[in-house]
């Protein structure tokens, strides 16, 4: 029962803290979105929904707080009697909560936009006819994977230092590259200026979703092994 209480407390505490960070982040992203809508005279930009606009910055944000979750929070919780296992479980739950809240918030704003202006378009990884709910879920699992990639980097550097940490960076880059590959057919429009994509792999959205979930599970497993017996830095 005590372990369940610890795990729940970590999940709630980390969710609350990271949602505060997320609120500030979304405020800045929304402000940038409004400014660009008013200043930039470009049809693609002007017709882009907030959900599509916020997706890229959200991936970067989740990557960063994934790294921070190790250095800022692992030492704190273990020093206060929380086991590494409960930290891992709580952090995993909080990452899911933050991912869903971020993309749900963006999805609600996008839905309101589309009620006001039919020309606003939300790019969907699940196909052109996908509902806003399905689009939010697909976006959520993608930014969750970005969090996991950051968490992997943080755990690698925390345990092994510079050389070992560099290997974890390489692994995280590989994970993010695989994500881009899995969703490449849908990334052509919103992110075509960032990715050089020439071949269509032919994966269905369901297949991409399942493979992404599998990739996420493997990443979390590696993080769990890395943090399981890690020596806690007291400073």
Automatic annotation (TrEMBL):
Alphabetical keyword list: Membrane, Transmembrane, Transmembrane helix
TM helices/strands, residue ranges: 21-40, 60-78, 90-112, 132-153, 165-183, 203-223
Highest taxon listed in the record's lineage: Bacteria
Stated name of the protein: Uncharacterized protein
UniProt organism field: Rossellomorea vietnamensis
Lineage: Bacteria, Bacillati, Bacillota, Bacilli, Bacillales
